């Protein structure tokens, strides 16, 4: 029951992230991706720091800034580049490769075995996302593809390293450290490469508050809590809930069409997420090892 609760709570994070596209396109001015990313990360990090009153020790600063770069600064910038240069479906499908990358990185950095069921679930999820989002107008811009792959690799590395490097603090503090570091990395790039934001309407301010407080602070606390408790491969599969949520919100809120093929893709993604959790259950593998050892002793 504890694992089910951990999975459900962790899955809430990508469900919330699925609202990012809707909130960004409907409430915020276009053309300020780095500035929006900085305003999403930095205030959220500062707020959590004020709540926790826990600063990272000096020996942790290098790791915190590396994680803040992988999970936020580099990931969000590459994500926006991919979104601008590729059709949304292609960008999201490249992002879904993160699950496969996590399996390989977890093997190298954590010594986690590569399980055939986990690989199959990740491949099924990628197929589902492609059916859900990739249309006939899909085009492959080389720079956009590179950004999409780089963004998936950045988030995968951040997920695995966040599991490998677990400081003796709460998930709230760990999230505060990373969000603040990511915001500090993004701020100078926003100031150097983007013009100042125009005056914001009340709707735009509300959108920023949602992205920062809910889409960053609250959701990433749940995400990093899950990273500490659930196997990295299982956590990465939950990220596929984000494109499903984005499509459903577009259908319900914006009145966008939802084809039969997209519905099949959504079902495939949900099945792959379920299969990924089954394939990565530690109890199943521990039972297999126990039974194997017992047979070996009896032989």
Automatic annotation (TrEMBL):
The keyword Heme does not apply. Gene3D superfamilies: 1.10.3730.20. InterPro entries: AA-Vitamin_Transporters, EamA_dom, EmrE-like. It comes from the Bacteria. Keywords: Membrane, Transmembrane, Transmembrane helix. It is found in: Membrane. GO terms for cellular component: membrane. The chain crosses the membrane at residues 34-52, 64-84, 90-110, 117-136, 142-162, 174-193, 205-223, 235-254, 260-276. Coiled coil: none annotated. The keyword Hydrolase does not apply. It is a multi-pass membrane protein. Residues 8-133, 143-274 form the EamA domain. Belongs to the EamA transporter family. This is EamA family transporter.
